[in-house]
Every structure is written in C-alpha cells, then in structure tokens.
C-alpha cells in the first residue's frame, strides 16, 4: 500500500500525560479513514498533528512523502472542519465559501467559478444569497465542507462534524458526504465515537484507546474479526463466550462452553486446551423452537427473558444458565415476539475466536 498520509511512531505528551503513544498509521490516497474510540483516547490530538495545530514530541507526520513536522497549518493544505462548524453568521453562503479566496485576492471570475463548482458539488445551487440562519443544519454543514475544500485541497479533516445534527439528518448528510468524497477522491480523515458512523462511511477504521491504536482494518474486519475484547465491545453489541479450545481428530476446531461443544469454522492456529473467548454478534445467533432440529455443536437451550421490537428485527435477551445472550432476530412475523423456552443456534461461520479469557482476550 502506498501511503499518502503517514504517521510514524508519533508521541504527543501534555506534561506527564501521554496522549499519543507511538502511533503509526498509513492512509492511501483517496481513502476515507475514521479514528474511532472513546472520549479522551487521542483522536482529535492525532488529527491536530496532521493539521499542524500541535507538534509531536517524537515521530513524523508525512503527506505524499513530505515531512510536515514544524510547518504551520496554512502551509499544509489540510483544512480541518470541527464539530462547531461556525459559519460567519453575517455573511451569505457565497461570501462564506469564497472567504479564503478573497483573502488570497483571487480575481472575481476565478472566485465565481470556484464557488459555483462548490455549490454544485455540495448541491447548494440557488442558496448562495442566503445567510446561515436561513439554512437547515444539513445545508449549513455542506457550506462548511464547501468552504474547507474551495482552495483545492486534496485532504479533508473532519472532527465529529455531524454531531450537531439530529439523528435522521446525520444519516442523510453522512451518505451525501461519502458520495462526494468518493466521487472526487478526497482523502478524508474523520473523527467520531459513533460506531455506526464509522462502519457505514469508512474504507479503513483505526480503533483507538488510551493514546494507542488497537486495530486498523476495514469495517468488516473490525466488526467480525476484532483484534481483542475492547474492539469487539466498542464497535457494537457483542456476546462473549468463554471456553476451552479443542482440536478434533479431523483437525477441526471446537470450543467447549457450558457443557456444550460449539463448532468454529474460523481458520486459526489455536492449540487444543487453550482458554479462548468466542466473539458472537447478536445477528450471529438465531432463535429456534425446541422441536426444531439443529446440527450438533451449533445450539444452546435458553429462556427468553426480554425483548425489544425494533421494526425490522426483534432484539431478544435470552438466559442460558448464568449468562444472558443478546440476539437480533430478523425473522419478524406479524404475530409478535417469541416467549418461553427456545434454542439458540449459532452461525458457526460468524464465530470469531480470541485467545485467552476475561478482559485480556485478544486475537
Ligand atoms: P473526544 O471524543 O472527547 O473529543 P478525543 O479522543 O478526541 O476525545 P483528545 O481530545 O485527543 O481525545 O484528548 C486526548 C487526551 O489528551 C485527553 O485526556 C485530553 O484531556 C488530553 N489533552 C488534549 N489536549 C490537551 C491539552 N492541550 N492540554 C492537556 N491535555 C490535553
């Protein structure tokens, strides 16, 4: 992979506090990369090293092979759009978008042409004479993106840019933003702590915790093949089943869990006898009646404790012995939710094995 943006062993400290602890990340040109992680894990700090608002104590930040360390923000071509997108309230859409061009004393014709391109790109035609307060939240957000990109930058840095929008609008704007990003091939670094946003928009997700990157991968890898228990837990609802690995005579892998032998299809180098943790997403388990046959090694018996009707699916909480499993059942029928005793059938293809038990389990 050719890196267009690269962080090499970046260390950032605030007094004794290590906010970034030897962070390395490579981003190919045109990719949409999301930094995902809990509050305070260092997402914004990492992005600021690239934008030039902060300098690392150690390590390098490179764009297109050139070292950025020490360059002021305006020489880096990496505009940053914050959560508070703060358009100038007394300026029209046209004036807001053209602000940077005006500072650069760009001739009027060129300015008009560039603004027109941005208006078209962000679907804002006809709104150029309006003031920010006459726009919807989504439109204001698009003006902020247009203002950031009008100078012809090829990199866009977005720090939780959608968090001021209501839930429905967020989904609309994120779809739109992703389409524009892909169409124009703008290399984008995006900060969020919202896993749905990260999964739906990104080419690559870097999951961070306490100043370190825990895993870099595609949304699919991060979701179905999390590197450890923290990542599995952070990127969605998950069931953890602790047990012991077992190598069958034919070389296949199974895991003994609560007196059951569960088959695992994943290819791993695990030895028999090792403690393991199975990672199972709620949609990796389905519900069956007690009378329905399930292949050996795929089912557990349980009792439905609770459910929540979500329209396109029902989320169930099912007790199996001392554990409660979360299950999303998409087979919603018109008669209502199931109750009582059931079998839980595990989709053996969707089981992921981590080595070790407890909080330390890792791939
Ligand atoms: P959030 O999702 O809450 O924005 P984040 O992952 O973006 O969190 P950062 O803003 O990067 O987190 O902060 C990482 C850590 O560094 C936090 O513990 C924060 O308190 C600390 N920190 C950030 N900036 C400074 C600063 N200028 N001085 C001292 N500590 C700082």
Summarize this structure briefly.
InterPro entries: AAA+_ATPase (IPR003593), ABC_SmlMolc_Importer (IPR050093), ABC_transporter-like_ATP-bd (IPR003439), ABC_transporter-like_CS (IPR017871), Mo/tungstate-bd_C_term_dom (IPR008995), P-loop_NTPase (IPR027417), Transp-assoc_OB_typ2 (IPR013611). The chain is 23% helix and 34% strand.
Describe the structure.
- This protein is α+β, with helices and mostly antiparallel strands.
- The chain folds into 2 domains: 5-233, Rossmann fold, CATH 3.40.50; 238-360, Nucleic acid-binding proteins (OB fold (Dihydrolipoamide Acetyltransferase, E2P), Beta Barrel), CATH 2.40.50.
- The protein is built from 8 helices and 20 strands.
- It has helices at residues 43-51, 93-103, 108-121, 137-149, 167-184, 195-201, 219-224, 229-234, and strands at 5-14, 17-27, 32-36, 58-63, 66-67, 80-81, 155-159, 187-192, 204-209, 212-217, 239-247, 253-257, 260-264, 275-280, 285-288, 299-309, 314-320, 323-329, 341-346, 352-355.
- A 6-stranded mixed β-sheet has the order 6-7-8-3-9-10, sandwiched between helices. Strands 13-12-11-14-20 form a 5-stranded antiparallel β-sheet, with no helix packed on it. The protein has a 5-stranded antiparallel β-sheet with strand order 15-19-16-17-18, with no helix packed on it.
- A hairpin with a 4-residue loop joins strand 16 and strand 17.
- Helix 2 (93-103) crosses helix 3 (108-121), helix 2 runs parallel beside helix 4 (137-149) and helix 3 (108-121) crosses helix 4 (137-149).
- The chain is globular and about 75 Å long.
- The model has no long low-confidence stretch (mean pLDDT 89).
- The chain binds adenosine-5'-triphosphate (ATP).
- Adenosine-5'-triphosphate (ATP) binds at residues 14, 19, 37, 39-45, 193.
